[in-house]
Specification:
CATH architecture: 3-Layer(aba) Sandwich
Number of domains: 1
Distance between the termini: 61 Å
CATH class: Alpha Beta
Largest sheet: 5 strands, mixed
Strand content: 15-25%
Number of helices: 5
Helix content: 25-40%
Structural class: alpha/beta
Radius of gyration: 26 Å
Number of strands: 5
Strand order of the largest sheet: 1-3-2-4-5
Order of helices and strands: HEHEHEHEEH
CATH topology: Glutaredoxin
CATH superfamily: Glutaredoxin
Length: about 150
């Protein structure tokens, strides 16, 4: 019956010189693409508000989640080396700083029990090893080289 109505509508439209009405098809969502690597910042402070965006960035280049705190002695000792290596690597990875005092749910989500803790995030999930504690610039550089 539906086919007969569609054929009849097309015939009437043709007689009147118009086009047959198009049948509506379900709209498909636009394809999602990862952001261009050049539009991704090299350093970001992660909050619950921008966490999803940071996970999207990890689909384009590695993200290092740096769980840290202002009062943490070893976090502060590690910080200048992270800055130096991020600059030297020309932003090949995103340094995503997570303040554990301001973002306890993210610390719980990843099971972070000690800081400083560095997590390698790729394609929206943890990939590879973690680095917990600061053993010096050489071990930090080696860990970053393995991203």
């Amino acid at each position: 019956m539906l086919r007969r109505i569609a054929v009849s509508a097309a015939a009437v439209a043709a007689l009147l010189g118009g086009a047959a009405p198009a049948l509506a098809s379900p709209a498909s969502p636009p394809p999602t693409t990862a952001p261009a690597a050049s539009s991704i910042p090299n350093v970001v402070d992660v909050t619950s508000a921008n966490y999803a965006q940071v996970m999207e960035w990890s689909k384009t280049k590695p993200v290092v989640l740096d769980f840290t705190a202002t009062w943490c002695y070893w976090c502060q000792k590690q910080k200048p080396y992270l800055q130096q290596y991020n600059t030297a690597d020309n932003g090949a990875w995103v340094w995503a700083k997570v303040d554990v005092d301001k973002n306890p749910t993210l610390s719980q989500k990843y099971g972070v029990r000690g800081i400083p803790a560095l997590l390698n995030i790729q394609n929206g999930q943890e990939a590879g090893s973690r680095m917990v504690g600061f053993d010096g610039p050489t071990s930090l550089r080696n860990w970053l080289n393995n991203l």
